[in-house]
Amino acid sequence: MKNIVGIGLLILMLVSTWYFLINGVDGRLIFYSSLILTLFLVIIGFNIFLENRDPIQTITWLVIFCAFPFIGFIFYFLFGRNFRKERIFRKKYFLDKQTFVKISGEAGYNERIKEMGENPQQLINLANRLGNSPVSFTTETRVLRNGEETFSNIIEELKKARHHIHLEYYIVRDDRIGGLLKDILIQKVKEGVKVRFLYDAVGSWKLARSYIDELKNAGAEMVAFGPLHLPLLNNKFNFRNHRKIIVIDGSVGFIGGLNIGDEYLGQVQKFGSWRDTHLIIKGEAVRTLQLIFLQDWYYSTNNSFLSDEYLMAGLPNHHVHGGVQLIGGGPDSEWTIIKSIFFKMITSAEKSVWIASPYFVPDDDILQALKVAALSGLDVRLLVPKNPDKRIVFHASRTYFPELLASGVRIFQYNEGFMHSKIIIVDDQLASIGTTNIDMRSFHLNFEVNAFLYRTESTQQLVNDYMEDIKVSNEVEIDEFSKRHLGLKLLESTCRLLSPLL
Q1: Mean pLDDT, range 434-458, rounded to an integer
Q2: Residues classed as catalytic
């Protein structure tokens, strides 16, 4: 029904616009157009009501329809349609689940989990059950704390590739670093390496066609995830692939916060210095990262490569300190996987919860968990950017500060450029690093991927890096923050009203 409504209203808008251009404003046409628009909005509102969304989200949409009917309609068809997302991605979900449940841990797997202690064991079991992915005790990781470290390591590993290179990114830009990576990929294709590149159609909408054609003409496979033809009528427009994945020869992987673009190297004046966190992974857990890519590739192309040459390459047989677990989440999941794991991390903390997120628009569950943790006497910290890159999200996030500060959460604003890291650290022992922000979109709409680290050396590195970031940040004081002028508070509250839709 919703597609019919969309097509009908789109035709109405086109006919009305054409009529106004030819004949000028006509009172009767305005009356009938308004009547039809109202009817369509009533139908949409009724469908939203039957979807049993969160009550606040439902009310927000209804208020927008009443106050700004035409703009509200456009905004809804771009960002608000659920379309029973479990139906849209049901095929993908069951294929992913059937594939992931075949993975098993190495010998002594259960014994190693028990050695981690009660809280990590519960978290591992939850992540395994929701994400169908075991923890690995034979995986090496290293934290990369900026664009220079990240891209220098990516380039080094790409040049070593012998069999295949798989890339999956939300944003790809045709700039200096994008061009350098493109040239390396073309060279590797000439050497006989298979290159598959999956990019998000919305995140990379500015990517030049010539960039794509050069890679394709060289022999690389480059595919758009969720391509859009008529955005207003496309029921998948709102569900985007936010993952950043590289897998090289099945034995080396990269995930984290950095897309492909010069701004992630701090070379765009608008953002200045860019603080981000990425992770290089070597060993068994790369197999899970490979599976996530291959399933996304299959969903986008109907081509499957689930064979030993992609899933069993370069797996070590020696144990390392701590465990690593790769989890993918998205609108195809039966549960809100990564959000549920975050919630468990916060509620099971015994000493501290440290979070870094460039976009902080939590839902009620995460917000309440953070406040209760702080009220219980835990050291709860939130690190956010001082300067915005997305103003609506930035202003919306600040409306959560007063209640967090009142409960004892310490909030720090990063001063040296833009902070884009997506980190959670619990009790200095458990950590998450990946693509997931603490916001509604990451929890419910985007395809994301995170690495969960259990008492690894990289966990300690994240702790050290977090402390260094705090040194170049300003702590938000509740008395000073409450003195914001009324106009700013009104702007923030307006953006907060849209937070269920962000």
Answers
A1: 93
A2: 242, 244, 249, 420, 422, 427
